[in-house]
Design a protein that fits this description.
Layout lengths: L11 E2 L1 H8 L3 H10 L5 E3 L2 E5 H10 L6
């Protein structure tokens, strides 16, 4: 018998989901989307962010030296 593990992470995230995942403010998420740094999909009036795009955004962040 084979079992498959199904991911419970959503493929498309709401802005609220992105806020929780990135620990950033709602306004910051909208600013990142407006600047093109965080790609999004618009479905009607709703905006959704692909989870892979959130992961790619995090991966491209560079550590800041003080």
């Amino acid at each position: 018998m084979t079992t498959t593990t199904k991911s419970t992470a959503p493929v498309l995230c709401t802005v609220k989901d992105a806020v929780a995942l990135l620990r950033l403010g709602r306004s910051t998420i909208y600013e990142l989307m407006a600047s093109g740094e965080l790609p999004f999909i618009k479905l009607g009036r709703a905006r959704r962010i692909k989870r892979v795009d959130i992961d790619a955004f995090v991966d491209q962040l560079q550590p800041q030296s003080t």
